[in-house]
Here is the input.
Amino acid sequence: GVRADTIMIFSVDNINNSIKMLSIPRDTKITLSDGRNIKINSCLGFKSREKFLIETVKTVTKMPIHYYCEVNFESFIEIVDILGGVDYDVPYDMNYDDPVQDLHIHLKAGMQHLDGQAAHDFVRFRHNNKGEGVYAPGEYAQGDIGRIGAQQNFLKELFRQKMQPQYLLKASDLLTAAADDVKTNFTVSSALDFIGILKSTNT
Here is the structure.
């Protein structure tokens, strides 16, 4: 609602047919015009929401931002389910409960098939419940930086498995399914224009 869980920039080069991804740690400190310091993910809590976040990201990265896409948790789950889930090697046992958010993550380590809900749980995991195994295993000891690495690895595997003709044919279904839950200044026709680039890129 008022904070971004994850912030990523995708740079699409339609000349060299390449796509690059940059994650911005959600705890990145920014200074407002009135001198207050806030975390960058709090930009969505201001009146202009997406506009303020986009302008802030442009200031921090010195990169142009032409399009934005705000994906909520429900649409992320739906998109992964439409694609048939993802086979993924979960690196650690993950057990975390936050009743306030109604967030309950319980994944076992090892190769498994993640449906939309399980994929959502994996990308949101930061640490285990206190007293249950290693509190922040492996890269998660780095806080949000460690979670960013896990999220990027997941997206790379998602792209590797789903960048196949049978899934690219579902592009229209994906865009239609996401339309009610995704805020964007992309049109469906503009998004479909990028399918040719997707076909030409590797993971």
Notes: The mean pLDDT is 89. The CA atoms of residues 26 and 141 lie 16 Å apart. The first strand starts at residue 7 and ends at 13.
